[in-house]
Amino acid sequence: MGKSISDRNRIWQKLQPEIQTIEAERQRRRPLGIAWIIGGLAALVVALWTGLQIEDGPWRIGSIALGFGGVMAQLIGFGQLNLHGSRFELLVRNAVFENAGLTFKKTVKDYPTERFRTLGLAPDYDEGRFRDQVAGQIFGISIQMCQAELVKRISKRNSKTLFKGILLASSFPEPILSRTTVFPDPTKTGYAPNLNALPGEPVQIGSSGAADLYEVYSSDPVEANHLLTASFMDRLMDIQKKLQARDDGAIVCLGLADQTLLLAVLGNKPWFEPPKGRPRLDDPSIVDGYLSDLARLQALVRLLILDDRTKP
Fold it and tell me: Whole-model pTM?
């Protein structure tokens, strides 16, 4: 998995039979779509001419109805011509995730945010909007991730977004007795997690470089220092820089508890978005955007790997 030409070509070749089916349907629908557009345009022209020439009330109402019908006919026509686009994008996205051994679900009714809230990574919110759930294993680590927008209701008409970004829960290879939260210095980022829910007291970690950039709260300072090795914190700083190169507002916070490591990644730029404009069925570069974001997801999960040098 990654942003490689070999991955792109392998996925593209595998998609060819279904792409040809979509293209055949697009060609079949094309005359019908053009007919709807031409008919709708003609109806709209007649409606405008009638409305300008006739002042009689019923005829004027009829011309308005005809004009509305013309607009609807054109929308139907464009829908017929562009119907292949959404199917094509879904096909490509599913193929990319399947190639990576992951599942993707566009619509998500709910997501288990309680673990994030107990570590202060997610605020107390009134409404959660979740989408784009990714699940499976990367590097042998089980992950579940989604894009989340957590909202606080100020009044019936007004609300405030408290969190917008990625929530990622991953398995941890051994039990964690303490509860630990790590986040960038709020004085430098302008963002602080839910301070009322942070576990324990502030902890001074041994990594000198990270100590100046991050704040750590833990119910067990000894275990926190045991887990947050210099190598681990170096990787955290590295992924923070890489995500900021993609999204200037990206902020990475993490929490450790039980056998789970949680990542909350704030950012203004959505992940796994289809390319802008009408996709071309003969252009394999549509795969690249999904592969790029999957590579970033890999980098996030790589942060969690423990080996002989970083294992606590």
Answer: 0.75
